[in-house]
Amino acid sequence: MATADRVEKPSDKFRSPQSRNGVVQPLLTDMYQINMAYAYWKSGKMADVAVFDLFFRKSPFGGEFTIFAGLDECIAFLQNFRYTKSDLEYLACVMDPGVEKPFFEYLSQLTTTDVTVMAIHEGSVVFPRVPLITLEGPLIVIQLLETTLLNLVNYASLLATNAARYRLAAGPHKQLLEFGLRRAQGPDGGLSASKYAYIGGFDGTSNVLAGKLYGIPVKGTHAHAFVSSYSSIDDLHNRELRHASTGALHDLVSISETYRTQVCELLKILQSEASEGEFAAFCAFAIAFPSGLVALVDTYDVFKSGIVNFCGVALALHQLGYKPIGIRLDSGDLAYLSNTVRTLFGQVAIKFDLPWFEHLTIVASNNINEDTINSLNEQNHKIDSFGIGTHLVTCQRQPALGCVFKLVEVNGQAKIKLSQDVEKVTCPGKKTVYRLYGSDGRSLIDLLQLSSEAPLSVGQKVLCRHPFQESKRAYVTPAKVEKLLKVYWKDGAVQQEMPTLLEIRDRVIAALASLRQDHKRNLNPTPYKVGVSDCLYNFMHELWLQSAPIGELF
Ligand SMILES: Nc1ncnc2c1ncn2[C@@H]1O[C@H](COP(=O)(O)OP(=O)(O)OP(=O)(O)O)[C@@H](O)[C@H]1O
Ligand SMILES: O=P(O)(O)OC[C@H]1O[C@H](OP(=O)(O)OP(=O)(O)O)[C@H](O)[C@@H]1O
Ligand SMILES: O=C(O)c1cccnc1
Ligand SMILES: [Mg+2]
């Protein structure tokens, strides 16, 4: 009996990619891709087979590393790639009236079944000129994918890299919260920012929809409006809270007032200077969230009001069997304020014999960027958690990553794109990418070679050359050889287990931990080496000469 119908399809074996973005569809592209598709079709190039590389030329933010992100969405896009009837009707309206009807018939049949995608794992540390994704298959189809794939990778990788830099600056133990939705580039920018900030090493987001769609931990404190909306304790229509274990009702406000008086005496602060409205607001929040109090203490005066009000309510919560979380600072000198607050918490801890009080969480926000964190580190701040919005999601220091999508081969014939700018000359042909490791386990260099070359192996000495500078070359005898490009999509099916966001996030953490410190440092980091094999070097330069006509001087 024939067994063909029992052959297990790869798509049955692996978890599907997790696109949740309805905007990602075949028409999310540049018009010129469709125009080119028509011209290819008119000239009979339907059977042409091409290879394209997607790569960037320079790491962002003045750094020497990039986190590759967005692959999951790319694979989901390929999986769902199909023009709908209404897409084709729309194209027929906007394209030149001379475009022949059978072209739209042809488009209606297009899928990515014949496209093979090789890619580096999402969450890897990657470097300039290395293909992150290579696509092989029908020229027309791959051309039609260009813009969408670039859109899916560029911001994702930029944001994940930005987030990873904030993580490196803050250190592994600080909590990093993404607060950027209100400042993000539109709704979709906001969602993507939350997703890729998490991948890059943030712990949570304030963005509720991102939490729902992607399973990212959602966190939130309260705003100045909440604090200033209360004028006095009379605004509280409920003053009671049940004891966490006995369930008995207690007047939280009175207990908090008693403690606040003691705290004022201890810290030598006039109780009359503390805001009654702020006190009422903290009581209200504590009654609503007795185990989740993070009080925003800078609406009035941090020390004369915010801290004493918070300490009063926090001690009352403790008496009723709960543990407050801490405070948030959103203005002023965050190093000075966090240090002073920590000292005051220490005094309260001693006075009330509650050692944990000294270690309550101090959250800081307010226009924080990577430089601010580095500067705060130098000032020995006492912040436990950073809430970061604007500069993270808008990628203040560099608003775009320049990933490009270049044709490197058609029908087995290598293609090169020349440029006056040597760095922009493309690396022709279908290639294999290796990461070569030294005996200390650290990666030494990424090496591109032609796919037709013999595979590299451990212990085999290999000449690695700079792609453009003839004199720059080195022999490497790798202790470990890693092939970076894996088959992700082939024969219309996903070929790898697609990782969860958490797994991608773990990959980023591990990849950065193993990257040499000098490549990661903030000021003048050492460039990571990306080389080409001797064979690829010679091939590329011969093709370059063949493609560049010799000029004549008159
Ligand atoms: N100790 C510090 N070292 C370096 N930068 C800091 C320090 N403390 C705060 N910052 C940063 O300095 C900037 C202060 O900005 P700004 O002057 O607008 O704040 P502010 O006046 O304190 O707050 P607001 O205007 O919201 O009341 C912020 O970007 C903040 O992150
Ligand atoms: O500063 P970011 O990194 O963007 O972080 C998010 C900011 O958003 C909130 O207030 P908002 O800025 O809306 O008002 P405020 O500056 O008046 O507090 C919050 O208090 C932070 O300051
Ligand atoms: O939860 C917060 O404190 C928060 C959320 C978004 C923006 N700013 C602050
Ligand atoms: Mg602000």
UniProtKB/TrEMBL annotation:
Named cofactor requirement(s): Mn(2+); Mg(2+)
Post-translational modification comment from the UniProt entry: Transiently phosphorylated on a His residue during the reaction cycle. Phosphorylation strongly increases the affinity for substrates and increases the rate of nicotinate D-ribonucleotide production. Dephosphorylation regenerates the low-affinity form of the enzyme, leading to product release.
- EC number(s): the record gives 6.3.4.21
Reaction catalysed by this enzyme:
5-phospho-alpha-D-ribose 1-diphosphate + nicotinate + ATP + H2O = nicotinate beta-D-ribonucleotide + ADP + phosphate + diphosphate
Task: Report the pathway entry.
Answer: Cofactor biosynthesis; NAD(+) biosynthesis; nicotinate D-ribonucleotide from nicotinate: step 1/1
What Gene3D superfamilies does its record include? Aldolase class I (3.20.20.70), nicotinate phosphoribosyltransferase (3.20.140.10)
Query: Keyword annotations for this protein?
Result: Glycosyltransferase, Ligase, Magnesium, Manganese, Metal-binding, Phosphoprotein, Pyridine nucleotide biosynthesis, Transferase
Q: What is this protein called?
A: Nicotinate phosphoribosyltransferase
Instruction: Supply the source organism for this entry.
Output: Hirondellea gigas
